[in-house]
């Protein structure tokens, strides 16, 4: 039995990149022709010219906050449930889900619509397994994400949903479930409840978890209790983005996404290894979100996975990119810090630190530069004042000295 879901996972990286770029113009064309809200967002874009990462990076980023606002405007104008972001018509959407906001997401009849089957396979799920699915089945698409993926592998699914831990445990025992899907913390609760009840679950040996952090300590705890857990990363907007493999070395990207890591507050791609915001273009013809900014932080790992899969990898979830904070009664955004840096070619990276002072909030802009030209700090301070309408001290530091953690704004104030 193959260790890989299909041959796509072991393609030559150059061939994969060629295939993705060849598909990209068609996705952009479908978005513009079939989704009026995306046609407005991408006004003036010639689809046939979007055939490279450089061309993709020139397109505007679609942030979650903007998606929410534009959906609301579109629905008020009489468009579909997504406000004109889907290409489906009539009864082609089998379900519509709601994420916090609310943002509405469609689901069509395409098999494995959310593309999680690949992640399940990497976690050891196989045809004939009974999967106990503890993701919610109402409002959000999480339950359907795992169920449709399990069906693509010809697994049987028990729709456990959330809550009712004692009943969940007894059902797992009686049905002899082989696998679990849900959040890692809920699986821990179920295994603790099983111990409390004296119920053995010897058949339960694997899990695909998502929706929250999965630290190594919890992974080890599950293993001690007989369950090998793997994590997947995705969102209700773009489906599965990346997944863990038996190599336990980062998360391998889905074969149907183009992922960029950009400087928070901008759409500017960062080099490999730098922490930034995850921006995803998913090849979903029904809901073709292009350059969707997830608001999550991560970084590209160098090289290929030891498991034999050749796609790029990310470090996993490293926090949130929206570091907007209020200083002296005014909001300061990561995009404003990026704008200050953009005005000065000498700046390699900038980090705004907000701290306490005797007179209230204090801002210090730490700036990496290759060489400190005379008067540079003063010029940067003037730009910061112009952009934020607040005064900031400027501290010039050596290139490479700022932490590589994706933070553009650090709130170091005490709230005790």
UniProtKB/TrEMBL annotation:
Q: Which UniProt keywords apply?
A: Ligase
SUPFAM superfamilies referenced in this protein's UniProt entry, alphabetically: Acetyl-CoA synthetase-like (SSF56801)
Pfam family for this entry, one: AMP-binding
Which positions fall inside the AMP-dependent synthetase/ligase domain?
143-280
**InterPro entries for the chain:** AMP-bd_C_sf, AMP-dep_synth/lig_dom, ANL_N_sf
Tell whether Ligase is among the UniProt keywords: yes
Extract the GO molecular function terms from the UniProt entry.
Answer: ligase activity
For this UniProt entry, which residues form the secretion signal?
A: none
Question: Could you identify this protein by its name?
Answer: Phenylacetate--CoA ligase
- Originating species: Verticiella sediminum
């Amino acid at each position: 039995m193959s260790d890989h879901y299909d041959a796509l996972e072991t393609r030559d990286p150059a061939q994969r990149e060629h295939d993705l770029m060849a598909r990209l113009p068609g996705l952009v064309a479908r978005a513009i022709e079939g989704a009026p809200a995306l046609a407005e967002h991408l006004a003036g874009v010639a689809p046939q010219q979007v055939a490279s990462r450089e061309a993709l990076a020139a397109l505007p980023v679609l942030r979650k906050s903007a998606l929410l606002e534009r959906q609301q405007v579109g629905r008020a104008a009489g468009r579909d449930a997504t406000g004109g972001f889907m290409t489906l018509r009539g009864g082609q959407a089998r379900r519509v889900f709601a994420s916090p906001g609310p943002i509405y997401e469609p689901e069509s009849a395409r098999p494995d619509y959310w593309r999680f089957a690949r992640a399940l396979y990497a976690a050891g799920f196989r045809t004939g397994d009974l999967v106990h699915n503890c993701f919610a089945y109402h409002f959000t698409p999480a339950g359907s994400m795992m169920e449709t993926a399990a069906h693509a592998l010809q697994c049987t699914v028990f729709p456990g949903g959330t809550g009712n831990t004692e009943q969940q445990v007894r059902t797992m025992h009686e049905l002899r479930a082989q696998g679990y899907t849900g959040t890692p913390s809920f699986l821990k609760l179920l295994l603790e409840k099983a111990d409390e009840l004296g119920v053995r679950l010897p058949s339960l040996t694997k899990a695909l978890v998502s929706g929250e952090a999965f630290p190594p300590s919890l992974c080890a705890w599950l293993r001690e209790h007989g369950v090998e857990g793997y994590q997947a990363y995705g969102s209700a907007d773009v489906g599965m983005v990346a997944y863990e493999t038996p190599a336990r070395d980062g998360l391998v990207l889905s074969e149907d996404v183009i992922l960029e890591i950009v400087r928070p507050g901008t759409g500017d791609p960062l080099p490999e290894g730098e922490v930034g915001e995850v921006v995803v273009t998913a090849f979903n013809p029904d809901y073709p979100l292009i350059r969707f900014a997830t608001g999550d932080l991560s970084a590209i790992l160098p090289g290929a996975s030891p498991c034999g899969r050749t796609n790029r990898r990310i470090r996993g979830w490293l926090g949130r990119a929206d570091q907007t904070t209020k200083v002296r009664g005014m909001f300061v955004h990561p995009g404003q810090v990026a704008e200050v840096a953009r005005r000065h070619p000498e700046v390699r990276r900038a980090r705004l630190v907000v701290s306490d002072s005797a007179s209230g909030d204090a801002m210090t802009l730490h700036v990496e530069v290759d060489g400190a030209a005379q008067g540079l700090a003063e010029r940067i301070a003037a730009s910061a004042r112009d952009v934020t309408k607040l005064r900031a001290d400027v501290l010039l530091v050596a290139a490479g000295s700022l932490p590589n953690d994706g933070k553009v704004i650090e709130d170091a104030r005490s709230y005790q």
